[in-house]
Design brief:
Radius of gyration: 28 Å
Distance between the termini: 71 Å
Oligomer: single chain
Strand order of the largest sheet: 1-2
Number of helices: 10
Order of helices and strands: HHHHHHHHHHEE
Structural class: mainly alpha
Number of strands: 2
Helix content: 55-70%
Length: about 200
């Protein structure tokens, strides 16, 4: 596939899935990075370095620190750095995808609508059904979300913030506790010199 893509589609770029890259790193070189862990080393090269020269410096420092210049997997992986490292792919359009999980998920979804016996016209007819169902579910989700937003009974800063964080059910429980707490009154105080004990009365109908 990697060799066929530049031949069939010369203006495109073949990229590696960063998720699979990390899984392979865990499999092949975990023993090298026991002090910080594989993810602690590779996440920097995948996500944080955006300059080619800085990438080379950090790579050489890492290889020297862990005495890993002769590691076959690292040699192969850094040999195709143009397919996964950010400084080299920053100008390659990929629809915001860095892993194959999204495409794999969509492929699995397509299987319910398409099969290899469809001709081109049938393919596009079924593909339109896929798009319609996807768009309908998105609209349905947006509608349900707008109808199920938590209702803030007292517009305090705390409740407003929690309404954005909690689900509707959890927020209603939190709001009930909050309202009861502000309706409580102090009916007794005991001060023993080191601490103060308050007796609270809840006015519950």
């Amino acid at each position: 596939m990697a060799k066929a893509i530049p031949i069939v589609m010369p203006n495109t770029n073949h990229r590696l899935c960063t998720w699979h890259l990390m899984q392979n790193a865990v499999k092949h070189v975990s023993s090298l990075f026991r002090d910080v862990g594989v993810k602690g080393v590779f996440s920097k090269f995948i996500h944080q370095i955006d300059d080619e020269e800085e990438f080379k410096i950090q790579r050489d420092q890492m290889l020297d620190r862990y005495d890993a210049r002769n590691n076959h997997w690292l040699e192969q992986t850094f040999g195709v750095k143009e397919k996964w490292e950010w400084p080299y792919i920053i100008n390659s359009w990929a629809a915001g995808m860095s892993t194959t999980q999204l495409s794999e998920s969509f492929n699995a979804f397509l299987k319910d609508y398409l099969n290899c016996d469809h001709n081109l016209i049938e393919f596009f007819m079924h593909f339109e059904r896929v798009l319609y169902d996807k768009r309908y579910k998105e609209l349905e989700s947006e509608y349900n979300l707008s109808q199920k937003l938590p209702r803030v009974s007292i517009p305090t800063l705390m409740l407003t913030q929690m309404a954005d964080i909690y689900t509707k059910t959890i927020f209603e429980e939190f709001q009930n506790e909050y309202v009861q707490s502000i309706e409580a009154s102090i009916v007794g105080t005991i001060n023993d010199g080191e601490s103060t004990i308050f007796t609270i009365q809840m006015d519950i109908d």
